[in-house]
Design brief:
The chain is an alpha/beta fold. It has one domain: Rossmann fold (3-Layer(aba) Sandwich). 44% of the residues lie in helices and 14% in strands. It has 9 helices and 8 strands. The strands form 2 sheets. It has a 5-stranded parallel β-sheet. It has a 3-stranded antiparallel β-sheet with strand order 6-5-7. The radius of gyration is 17 Å and the shape is globular. The relative contact order is 0.19. The structure holds BIS(adenosine)-5'-pentaphosphate and magnesium ion. Magnesium ion binds next to helix 1.
Amino acid sequence: MAEHLPKHRILTLIGPPGVGKGTIAELLVKKLGIPHISTGDLFRNAMNGRHVLDKKIGTYMRKNKFVPDSITLPFIFHELTKRKYKNGVILDGFPRTLVQAKALETHAKNTPHVDLAILLNAPTRILQKRLSSRMICATCRTVFNIHSRPPKLRGICDVCGGALVWRDDDKPTVVLQRLRDYKQLTAPIVRFYCTSNRLIQIDADATPKVILHCLIEAIAQKGF
Ligand code: AP5
Ligand code: MG
């Protein structure tokens, strides 16, 4: 497994729901030329599959619960063995628990660990506004926003012409639960990367262009 894993460039985006991890990942892919894995997207794709594992994932996703580490870890480690990640990868939504962060460091001999963790943060009211106005393409999953990234034609994806839909977990009550889960389960990994001097913190209450600019500068300062 380990020989196919990227040698050096593993970068992970951490941050609360709606902060813009997927949006910034998309820009970083173009800038750095390395691919992106969103565990949320992987799980949403898997949840309608027929395999036993897909069905298990679906059970948790439909309840808007974190997929347990015992499922997430083998799933992501298998994904990372693919050749397309051999020169590096931008992780979005993984690791999301301390157990996952530690497992990524140690799961196989000589496995590379995360080089840089990027914490994106913004006030809760901004997160709620972004999530309540997000739409995604039901076909190609491109993300839009009725305020900040509207499609050219209302309800239609600019990329593939598919229908735009709301994400089930963007309902206000579910968003509150996701914010609580983030604070309880994900926030502890920030300290984990901070103590090993691998953390960059970026104010995400800005336009994607400004955020990317700050991020590229911060990444360069870390010698990435
Ligand atoms: P996931 O899909 O990763 O959800 P999330 O972490 O809650 O984050 P989001 O995708 O909702 O937000 P984002 O930060 O990517 O923001 P986006 O760029 O879309 O995970 C879903 C679920 O899967 C989890 O809840 C969990 O159940 C499960 N899961 C996933 N990974 C797991 C793991 N490792 N372990 C266990 N379970 C796991 O932006 C949001 C909106 O704002 C968009 O409309 C966008 O256009 C807009 N926007 C973005 N940036 C800006 C900006 N700067 N200015 C204005 N608008 C902006
Ligand atoms: Mg996302």
